[in-house]
Structure formats: structure tokens, C-alpha cells
TrEMBL record:
Key words, A-Z: Membrane, Transmembrane, Transmembrane helix, Transport
InterPro entries (alphabetical): MFS, MFS_dom, MFS_Exporter, MFS_trans_sf
Boundaries of every Major facilitator superfamily (MFS) profile domain copy: 212-397
Intracellular or extracellular location(s): Cell membrane
GO cellular component: plasma membrane
Designated name of the protein: Transporter
Amino acid sequence: MKGQRLNKQTFTRKQEIRFLAMVSLFWFAQYIYIPYQTTYLNLLGVSSAFTGMVLGAYGITQLVFRFPIGLCADSIGRHKCFIMAGTLFSGLASLFRIFWGDGMGYLVANLFSGLASAMWISFMIFYTNHFSTKGQQAATSRIVLFNNFGMLIGFLLSTIGYSRIGMMGICILSVCAGLLAFFLSLQIKEPCQKMETIDRKDLLSVCKIKRLWLFAILALIQQGIQLTTAMSFTNQILKDLGGSNGLVGLSSIIYMVSAVGFAAFASTFLCCKRGPKFWIPAVFVVVSVYCILVPSAKSSSELLILQILPGMSTGILFSYINSEAMCGIPAEKRSTAMGLFQAVYAIGMTTFPIFTGTIASAFSIRCSYMMLAGIALIGTAVSILYYMNHSSCRKEN
């Protein structure tokens, strides 16, 4: 098999700004409708179990396509085409929400949104490849920061606009953002380098790296709980407490402001000084506490304050798990490794919402959140045991 191999290159300031703007627009398109998706489906009469399936559908296409996309990107040594496809699919997904606006339409739309997010591999690898090994953690935190910033702007506009333009208007904004991101992706400069033979079996050898699997499973727990709670069922709990549509939007905004702030903190020297050995298990404990306290909240104000906690999960925990998983992976295999990593955590994004919705329908939402808290504590225990026997990859290298 033959493919392209890129040499290390650096961004100009203008290119980096353009790229990070595209990242924010992409995630804006992907998440602007999220604060009201669960409550909107509930308003349509969709059951909690089917709502869980709709939420889980977002992870299904990521589970199926992320590893093949990563393998293909490494094989051909190119990322621009996958980035372009991702931005295009992000806008296309919301067209289904506009023209087929029932539960089944949202199910299909989330499948396409998941396909768009499956291309996130190339966004991350293309960006971090422009930085040295020492700069990988900061670069990862930076792209996660702009990822979260795009979501935050989406949540702000949806909160302001939902009562005025409704879900259809919000989905139109999603389409526009996706198209603008696609336009910016056309301007990405990816120089063509000399061809060389690439052994696919050699690329697949990353599947034997135990460390990669460990952090992929930790990401599975983190992403599964985050998507299920802070971005979905927590908003329904807030609604059940008598919260208005505005409060539902405010809840998501508080969560995203927290995520952006903690992502910025994750790239600072103060945070890096403690390192993943401290932050990964510590934030898993915070996630567990969040899952215990949310269904016990007695008022909307309590729930709004609690939405600060999952911001640590998104901003710090996810950044560190990403960088730890990729540390030590050769540059020519990083897309394949990232594809495997993201495919594994997509299992959590697919199964956790379905699992939570089913438990909530059969028993109660409190019961489902308690089980999620227990799973977060498993993540704490696994990470502590790992670091008791291993140093951080950054120190090893």
C-alpha cells in the first residue's frame, strides 16, 4: 500500500487562527441544538428509552467509522479530505432535523452527526502534528478549548433564540455554521510530500498497545457519562424541577463556561505541574460526586451550581486522557491510534445514554445516576492502580 507522508510543519499565526475558528464553527454546528434536544423530544411524546437511542445514535457511527478513518488517514498520510467531510456532514445532519423533525428524524440526524464527529480524528492529529513532543499536552488542551468554545457559543445562541425561533431556527443556524466551517476547511494547506510504502499490518500494531486501550476505556467512561448527564438527562431533571426553557439553556451555558475555563487551565504550567497522575483520578471522583448529587437536587439553583463540576471532566480529564493515550505513539501511526481510541470511547457515547434511558424508564432517573456514579468510581480505581505501577508517559520520555 502507498500513501503520503507529511514532514513536521508549523502554522503561521493566521493559519492557526483560521483552523481554530473552523474547529469552533464545526462544534457549534454539532451542538447548538443539544440543550433542548432531550426536552424537545419529550415534548413530541418520545419515550425516555427511545430518547436514549437517539442520543446513543450519535456514538454508533463514531464507533463504526473512527478506526477505519484513522487507519485510512495514516495510510494515505492526508487529513484535509476528512476534515472537509466532517464539516460538510455537520451541516447536513441538521437538514434532517429541519425537514424530518420527529423522533425518527432526529435518530437519523444523530447518525450523520456521529459520522461528522468520526472525522474529529483528523482535526486533532492535523493540529497537534504542528507541535513538538513537549508541546503536545498544551496543543491538545488548546484544540479542546476551541472545541468547547464552539459548543459554548452554540449553547448561548440556542438559549437566547429557542423561545424566539424554535428548534427549526436553531437547526438552520447549525446548517449555516457547518457550511462556513466547510468553506474554511477548503483553505487548509496540506503540502503533498513524496510517496512511500506503508505497511498496513505495521499500522495495526497499535492495537497491541495496552496503554492505549487503558486510556481508551477511561475515555469511554468519561465521554459516556458526560453525554448522558450534563448534556442530556440533567436538563430533563431540571425541567422536572420546574425549570423554564431559559434555565435549561443557562444550565448548558454554565457547564460549557466551566469546560472552557478548565480546558484553558489544563494548558497552564500550574495544572501540568500536578500532571495526569493527580488529575485523572481526582476528576473521576468529581464526576462520581456530580452523579450522586444531581438527582438529589431540591431546586433549580442547586442543579445550576452542580453544572460547574462536569466542566472539569470535559476541560481537564478529557484533555489529559487524550494526551496520555497518544504519548509515545509514532507520528506515522497516530491517526490509527486515535481512531482506535475514539472508536472505543464511542462505545460509551452509544451505550451509556441507552442504558441510562432504559434504567430510568424501568426504575428511576436516580437509580440510573447512582449506577453512573459507581462506574466513575471504577475509573478512579483503575487510574490510581495504573499510576501506582507506572509513571506518566511524559516523565518516561
